[in-house]
Each structure stands twice: as C-alpha cells, then as structure tokens.
Write a structure and sequence with these properties.
Helix content is 66%, strand content 0%. It has 98 residues and is an all-alpha fold. Helix 2 packs across helix 3 and helix 2 crosses helix 4.
Amino acid sequence: MTDEEKKQLKEAFNRRIGQRIAVLRSLAKLTQEQLAERAGLQRTHVGRIEAGRYEVTGWVLEAIAKALGLTVDIIDLALQDLAPLKRLTPEPSQQPEQ
C-alpha cells in the first residue's frame, strides 16, 4: 500500500467516524458543547472530529462513548457497514448441513 493510499484510508476513516459521532450526538440530543463538556474536551475539538479533520485516539473515543452513555463496542458497531457481510452469509436454506 502506498503512502497516498494510507493517507486516503485514514482520511476516509476520520470522516466516517466523525459522521457517526455526530449522528450519535444528535440522537442523544446534545450540542457539540454539551458533548465536549461531558467528555472533557473542547467544543472545537469535537467539531474537528465530527468534520473528519482530526484523528481520534483511543482515549478520546472512550471519553466520547462514555459521554454518550455508550461503550466503544457500540460505536464500533455503528461504524461497521454490514452489507458486505450480509451478502457473504448464506440464507438459512442455503447453509451446508452438518
């Protein structure tokens, strides 16, 4: 993988996680300022994360999850696009017999 491809993957991930955090924050009916206060962050930091302009570290993700009343595992599930997995999973009638 080239450095450019790595950069593109990182940027895409940052945008995706930022969008998901924004949706989860909105569902919790919190402003960026309220989420930032609960997570011990600055509002501008939350804004940059939601805009995908900041690489989220593990402790920041933990703090945001806790502030939203979630666990990182729940956020991980929110990040996953399960459509490819669903296409790979055979229907019950198509599963091999054991």
